[in-house]
Amino acid sequence: MTFSAVLLAGGESRRMGRDKANVLFRGKPLWQVQLETLQKLEAREIFVSAPIDPPWRPDGVPFVGDVAPSRGPLSGLAASVDRMSTSHLLALAIDMPFMTENYLHCLCDQIEPGRGVVPKIGSRFEPLAAAYPREAEIDFRSALAGADYSLQTVVGDLVESGKLRELLVTAEDKRLFMNVNALSDLQSA
């Protein structure tokens, strides 16, 4: 199956104190690390999603603005699913630099017609490194029209309706989902 990919870069970086996208990780800015990971997957198309077009976005990588008013990653996912030309959208957060090409390949290998895959650690979904089917667009739009913008809620509903399948994360793979929210997160890693 073909898929599209989106780098979700809409966070406000409050805890970081500056734009996370430009924080160096192993000698490269986070945006570059994540974009290179997505490019290795050979998605049909790759987008950058954020409330406004980031100055670091490379030419040739289309910008997808969040569905207004921005409600966090839910808005970016809704806009990206609407824009994609494939059956599935692989989402990756800009602040998850430990995620690997191999793990994302594993996710993409498990997509099915009308069904995506979302990793789960304990009782919490990991919706910012997941593959969503086109059919999830209506659920994203419904959530944006309501009052609960939590991706945990939306993803739970998608799992219950069969549009997403849970993938339990092994103890060994938990580290892949570590978010970098403060400079101390990078130092402790």
Structural class: alpha/beta
Q: What's the CATH architecture name?
A: Alpha-Beta Complex
Kindly identify the CATH topology.
Spore Coat Polysaccharide Biosynthesis Protein SpsA, Chain A
- Low-confidence parts, pLDDT < 50 over ≥5 residues? none
Report the end-to-end length measured between terminal Cα atoms: 35 Å
Q: What is the element string, with H for helices and E for strands? A: EEEHEEHEHEEEHHEH
Q: Any descriptors?
A:
189 residues, alpha/beta, Spore Coat Polysaccharide Biosynthesis Protein SpsA, Chain A, five-stranded mixed sheet, three-stranded mixed sheet, globular
Descriptive account of the structure:
With 189 residues, the protein is an alpha/beta fold. It has a single domain (3-188), classed as Alpha-Beta Complex (Spore Coat Polysaccharide Biosynthesis Protein SpsA, Chain A). The protein is built from six helices and ten strands. It has helices spanning 30-40, 73-83, 101-109, 137-145, 151-161, 183-188, and strands at 3-8, 24-25, 28-29, 45-50, 63-65, 88-93, 116-121, 124-125, 129-133, 164-168. The strands form three sheets. It has a five-stranded mixed beta sheet, with helices on both faces. Strand 2 and strand 3 (28-29) form a beta hairpin. Helix 2 packs across helix 4 (137-145). The longest helix is centred in the N-terminal third of the chain and has 11 residues, at 30-40. The protein is globular, with a radius of gyration of 15 Å. The N and C termini lie far apart (35 Å). The model has no long low-confidence stretch (mean pLDDT 91).
